[in-house]
Amino acid sequence: MTRIVCATKAAQNSRAVHQRAFEIAAETGHDLEFLHVVAVPNFDDLMEPMQEAVRSELHWLVHSLTRISRQRSGHHDIQPTVEVVSGPIAEAILRHIEDEDVQVLVIGGTTDGETSVFKQAGFESFFVEANQANVRVELVG
Amino acid sequence: MRTEGVLFPEVWAPLDELYEEVMADSRKELDSHFQAHPELETAMFLQARADAISAERSAIAEAALRGIVSGDTAEHLSSELAYRLAALDLISENYNDGEASH
Fold first, then answer.
1. Beta partners for A31?
2. Fewer beta carbons below 10 Å: N end or C end of chain A?
3. Helix B71-95 / helix A48-73 crossing angle, nearest 10 deg
4. Residue A42 touches partner B, C-beta closer than 8 Å
5. What pLDDT score does A57 carry?
6. How distant is the Cα of B2 from the closest Cα of chain A, in angstroms?
7. Which comes out higher in pLDDT, residue A67 or B5?
8. Alpha-carbon distances, residue B102 vs A60, A139, B77, B95, B98 (angstroms)
9. Is B36 on the interface with A (CB under 8 A)?
10. Min distance B16 CA to chain A CA atoms (Å)
11. Which helix (H) or strand (E) holds B40?
């Protein structure tokens, strides 16, 4: 099933990105998935039970925050899924969208020239790689 | 008072309606406030989640005291929940100020 992936950092400025992802999912009728890359420093050095607990609690957090966004967007019929992965951000997102049948990647932008997930310099090569995987990248904000 | 018959339907129905309107206004105000300050929403979620896990730990300890679950099982479950609480602390430190590294 074709899907839309929204890369979210689950932070203050993520709400607009979530809402845009819901809009695109409603317009296209595709499945919606929220992808979060763990942003805990030295995550790989944590003990395995701790890594599992962090992943699990982040799943709860992202799930809850996106539920709130869904409520506000009014698209109550859309049932998004949540995926929490770890690793270098750009790599983890690219790996995920290459593995899946992804049509659109929704990602947050900021006014200071950096995307909400990584710096502009990294974004340009990321954009090229995403296009090579036939994924349209939509920058929000 | 309504269920006890102290208030007649003619009285409680409009009162109920009025309370609902006031509550709806408050909910809207609260929602606008959260939209303006999303960090509060995240903080509230993390606190609520920590409270829920702590309550679960207490319930397990109580169940162990009453002999409903074995000491080993209680210890195992409690240890898992301790990881969950520690995980929430880590998440709170790294996500709640909006300065997450990505």
1. A3
2. N
3. 60
4. no
5. 96
6. 32
7. A67
8. 19, 15, 33, 10, 10
9. no
10. 25
11. helix B38-65
